[in-house]
Design a protein that fits this description.
The complex is a heterodimer of chains A (about 180) and B (about 775).
Chain A (H helix, E strand, L loop, with lengths): L9 H13 L14 H12 L3 H4 L3 E7 L2 H9 L4 E2 L2 E9 L9 E4 L5 H11 L2 E5 L10 E6 L2 E7 H6 L12 E4 L1
Parallel strand pairs in A: 1-3, 1-4, 4-5, 5-6, 7-8
Antiparallel strand pairs in A: 2-3, 6-7
Chain B lengths: L13 H11 L15 H5 L3 H4 L1 E2 L7 E2 L6 E6 H7 L4 H5 L5 E5 L6 E5 L10 E5 L2 E2 L19 E8 L3 H4 L6 E7 L10 E10 L3 E12 L2 E12 L15 H4 L2 H10 L13 E2 L2 E2 L7 E12 L2 E12 L16 E15 L4 E22 L2 E25 L2 E15 L3 E3 L27 E2 L24 E17 L2 E12 L3 E13 L4 E12 L3 H5 L14 E13 L3 E13 L2 E2 L2 E2 L3 E14 L9 E19 L4 E8 L6 E11 L3 E10 L27 E12 L2 E8 L7 E3 L21 E3 L5 E9 L1
Parallel strand pairs in B: 6-9
Antiparallel strand pairs in B: 1-2, 3-8, 4-5, 6-7, 8-9, 10-11, 10-40, 11-12, 12-15, 13-14, 15-16, 16-17, 17-18, 18-19, 19-20, 19-21, 19-22, 20-23, 23-24, 24-25, 25-26, 26-27, 27-28, 28-31, 29-30, 31-32, 32-33, 32-34, 34-35, 35-36, 36-37, 37-40, 38-39
Classes of the chains: A alpha/beta (about 180), B mainly beta (about 775).
């Protein structure tokens, strides 16, 4: 491996390789598996109708954390029916602050633990995009599964948040515990 | 976005009123494909590729499904998996492109949609929407300069787009979109480092930095690349590509043939070209780039600067040109941009761009019995202001419009010293030249006269300043309007643009597209579009040996009609185009040479299938097929030395091409990728003396043979580190590609007919390895 344009001395090579190997422990920030935002918005609303509490209440509010593009498309859908409910509010922010959402869409990993404990405490459905956060305790993961949408349902997180699903969701989602 | 229900006042034209009334009654989905009306089963079958947003086709964000053009998008994931380490890698895998790897002054020359040009001059190359094509000769420089790890995606658009872009969006667009900070959260910084090493002592290092801190953000990419490139022995056999030719004193004289140009017994440093003496083969390349963007609230500013230094490789006959010299291209671009969302419905985007580019280099020539060592330069600049207005009049109707003002300061003819009397412009020799402006011929020495004391002189210093008499100043002004309207499952996209050039006058280019989503799986598009291509200053003024110039050339015009069908299933995305293009005033050899007609079929398929390996992701890939029939009304008669009326095949474009790409994930950490490209046999361009029907002195018609290449890339990923091994030309395919430009060398290797560019281009016929290490911090 050559890291510079003059021929490296062995010491430089050893130091460079050691440095690179030392970086192995760092997690990757890259995620290429997010769905296009418009498709993500449509799926978010459709799949929410499979959660029985959500689909039977009057109004639904969604808080989108750190995904402006998705919130834009969701706002365009205000008034859409979700089961027997209606999408009434969509907000975008970087934190939960004083919102009382029924669904939190976690766009980027920012104060994730706070978000998940709020969701657990208030029985809120959490959704994220891309597989990066699938194992982090978010209930639903929507992702690009090699060219078509994929859904991962975290059964453990779902149970902790007291969510009840129409069993038909299992026709579309893979599950993790 | 709020739905409005206002009835238009009488003052508004009736047609607009009808549209507004109709749109107010539409369902909530304002994008035609009714995603929200689909059930979950249908949504789960949607191909993500067709829903990705792009503003390359219409200059406003829309899904590919709704774009008024055929498009392919290559994402960063594809770049990594396929092992693309430079932009030129990508072209061979694309449908609708006939690509020749020259390994010369232009690393590749690619003809989009079957339209043959001397270089890649009719495809608009953009970086983040800003034009990169050379100002002087309109060429897209597709070499190893761009940092691919800093690229978010590359959008390739097929068909003329003059209605949106104005001049020179003639055959299509390649828009390189770099990573920005849109998806970063406050306080986040990402660093990517990539190092490559491979065959021919090729090395590259790349850096990609991005960050977001409150209202401020940055995105910086950089790349350094150098390579010795392949040796002659690594190429397929071609009689004008032998090292012995470079050392032949009968061709090059004793000085150049030996490297001791002044025959003083010592090869001194000023006799070296890129550290190498003449008389032996070397083909070094060095490229670099820096792309930087800074964001603050609604503002962004940035720069891009790059340079390519390329040796000549097999581009020219070694009887006519020594290959060691460096031919360079440089480009510098600075911009300031503001995007202002005035209210919920109106957005105004303003952009000011200044850019410079230059090209030139060393040229050691043997023409007839004349030897010369010359220095060439073209230096150009332009500034441009554009403003675009996007008005979401109703949820279903988007109106856009824009203005452009651009001023260019262009070199007319090459600055060239030490060349033939009355060719080019050379201030240092002008006083003794015939016309008082050019080289004076003192640098041109007959090969038979070379002797100690009478050797080929080195050229005088050539300043980067272009004298005023050799500058052309032009002004372009443009105005466009566009309406995009959704009605149930239909989308209508209409635009028209007027461009006024201070030299060529006014051109009007419309585009109309009707897009129909017949079901959740199927979409049809009907598109009509036009574009025009300004003659380049190279064609107008830049003549030299083997290349003419003609200030009277008219702009080229294309009219294209196209039908596209897209159908998506769980395992396939079928996307096919049938098009017919008519071209007026075709420019080649610095002349308008009549019309051309090109009929084509392009199939752009994506597939996805279960992996036979357990615990591994699905196998995915692409199958592309291209059929092209390109006819030209005029052919070059090689014996008469002029263009004549003769409707026949244009040449240099393969009738059939197949690209097969496959990606195989292997467990969690490994990924294998295979790329197979088959190109059918093709007739050569009529300027090529190997084509018998354009050269009555030739009995046998020689074609460019069919070939198949196989490339593979193996990737290992673990957390934030990725290691790749790429093998190109896995099966060591041995073939010759069609020559570029005039391609005039011929194949009678017993003689030198001074055709300069090789009629057939040798290709590397060995496996080429490269190793990549990528780290994200």
């Amino acid at each position: 491996m050559i890291l510079c344009f003059s021929r490296p001395k062995n010491t430089i090579l050893v130091v460079a390789l050691s440095l690179l190997l030392g970086l192995l422990a760092l997690p990757s920030k890259a995620d290429d598996t997010a769905l296009p935002a418009r498709l993500n918005a449509a799926l978010t609303l459709k799949i929410a109708s499979y959660e029985l509490h959500l689909s039977n209440q009057k109004h639904i509010s969604i808080l989108v954390l750190n995904d402006l593009e998705l919130s834009k498309y969701l706002k365009e859908r205000i008034g859409t029916k979700i089961g027997n409910s209606t999408l009434s509010y969509v907000n975008h922010d970087s934190d939960i602050n004083n919102y009382t959402p029924d669904i939190i869409f976690v766009g980027q990993q920012n104060k994730l633990n706070n978000t998940l404990s709020y969701a657990h405490k208030n029985k809120v459905l959490t959704i994220t995009k891309g597989k990066k956060l699938a194992l982090s305790g978010v209930v639903l993961t929507l992702y690009d599964d090699e060219g078509i949408p994929g859904i991962i349902l975290n059964l453990g997180a779902s149970k902790e948040n007291d969510l009840t699903w129409n069993p038909e969701i299992l026709n579309f989602a893979s599950t993790i515990k | 976005m709020k739905m409005t229900n206002k009835r238009s006042p009488q003052l508004i034209p009736a047609v607009i009123t009808a549209i507004v009334i109709a749109s107010a009654s539409q369902a909530e989905d304002n994008h035609g494909s009714n995603l929200t009306q689909m059930n979950l089963s249908d949504l789960m079958l949607q191909r993500t590729a067709v829903h990705r947003q792009s503003d390359t086709a219409s200059s406003v964000s829309e899904s590919l499904q709704n774009a008024p053009a055929a498009m392919i998008v290559i994402r960063q994931q594809d770049i990594r998996r396929r092992g693309y380490d430079s932009i030129d890698d990508i072209l061979a895998d694309l449908p609708g492109f006939d690509t020749v790897v020259t390994n010369g002054t232009e690393q590749v020359v690619s003809y989009q949609r079957g339209y043959r040009t001397p270089w890649t001059q009719r495809t608009l190359l953009l970086i983040n929407g800003k034009v990169e094509n050379n100002l002087w000769m309109h060429g897209a420089v597709l070499s190893r300069q761009y940092p691919m790890s800093h690229v978010d995606s590359i959008e390739i658009l097929y068909g003329p787009s003059g209605a949106v872009y104005g001049p020179n969006a003639f055959l299509g667009v390649i828009n390189i979109i770099t990573k920005n900070n849109d998806k970063l959260i406050d306080g986040e910084d990402i660093v990517n480092i990539q190092a490559e090493s491979g065959s021919f002592d090729s090395k590259a290092i790349e850096l990609s930095l991005r960050g977001k801190h409150s209202d401020f953000g940055y995105s910086i990419g950089a790349r350094l690349f150098n390579s010795d490139e392949a040796a002659i022995g690594d190429y397929s056999q071609w009689g004008y590509f032998k090292e012995s030719l470079l050392r032949d004193p009968a061709v090059w004289g004793a000085g150049i043939a030996s490297g001791d140009i002044n025959l003083d017994g010592v090869i001194s440093s000023n006799e070296l070209f890129n550290d190498e003496p003449t008389g032996r083969y070397s083909d070094p390349s060095e490229n670099y780039s820096l792309l930087a963007d800074f964001y603050w609230r609604d503002w962004s500013m940035g720069l891009s600067t790059w340079r390519t230094d390329e040796g000549y490789g097999p581009y020219y006959s070694l009887s006519d040109a020594q290959p060691q010299g460096i031919w360079f291209h440089t480009a510098d671009q600075f911009y300031l941009k503001n995007t202002h969302q005035l209210n919920d419905t109106l957005k105004i985007t303003s952009e000011l761009v200044y850019r410079e580019n230059a090209s030139g280099g060393d040229w050691v020539e043997s023409y007839g019995s004349s030897l010369s060592i010359s220095d060439w330069l073209s230096n150009n600049s332009a500034w441009r202001f554009e403003q675009q207005y996007d008005l979401q009049l109703t949820p279903n109707l988007l109106l856009s419009g824009g203005i452009k003002h651009e001023e260019k300061k262009l070199t007319k003819g090459y600055m060239v010293c030490n060349y033939f009397d009355d060719l080019g412009f050379c201030p240092a020799q002008a006083s003794s030249s015939t016309g008082g402006l050019s080289s004076d011929g003192s640098g041109v020495i007959a090969v038979g006269a070379i002797a100690p004391g009478n050797t080929t002189p080195l050229p005088p210093h050539l300043s980067s300043e272009i004298p005023s008499f050799n500058i052309a100043r032009t002004t372009d002004q443009g105005l466009f309007v566009q309406a995009i309207y959704d009605y149930e499952n239909w989308r209508f996209n209409g635009s028209i643009r007027a461009d006024r050039n201070s030299v060529y006058g006014t051109e009007i280019n419309p585009r109309a597209a009707v897009i129909y989503h017949s079901s959740s799986q199927t979409t049809y598009k009907f598109i009509y579009g036009e574009a025009f291509q300004e003659p380049s200053n190279k064609s107008l003024y830049g003549g030299w040996n083997g290349s003419g110039s003609n200030p009277a050339i008219e702009p080229e015009k294309v009219r294209n009609i196209e039908f596209i069908a897209m159908h998506q299933t769980e395992h396939f995305l079928h996307d096919a185009s049938v098009f017919f293009s008519h071209y007026d005033n075709v420019i080649t050899s610095s002349a308008n040479v009549g019309d051309r007609d090109i009929f084509g079929i392009e199939y752009r398929g994506q597939y996805r299938m279960n992996n036979f390996l357990s615990n591994s992701g699905d196998i995915t890939g692409n199958i592309f097929y291209t059929y092209t029939q390109a006819m030209a009304d005029q052919q070059y008669d090689n014996v008469q030395g002029k263009w004549i009326d003769d409707r026949d095949e244009q040449g240099d474009v393969a009738p059939h091409k197949v690209n097969f790409l496959m990606n195989l994930p292997i467990k969690q950490n490994w990924n294998a990728n295979l790329r197979v490209n088959w190109v059918s046999e093709r007739e050569l361009f009529s300027q090529n003396p190997l084509r018998a029907d354009s050269n009555s002195a030739r009995a046998d018609n020689r074609k460019a043979e069919a070939y198949v290449t196989v490339d593979a890339n193996l990737l290992f990923s673990h957390k934030n580190i990725e290691v790749g091994l790429k093998i190109e030309n896995l099966l060591e395919e041995d073939y010759l590609a069609p020559g570029v430009e005039g391609a005039g060398s011929g194949d009678d290797f017993s003689t030198d007919n001074d055709g300069f560019q090789n009629s057939l281009l040798p290709q590397v016929n060995e496996r080429v390895f490269s190793f990549t290490l990528r780290v994200e911090l």
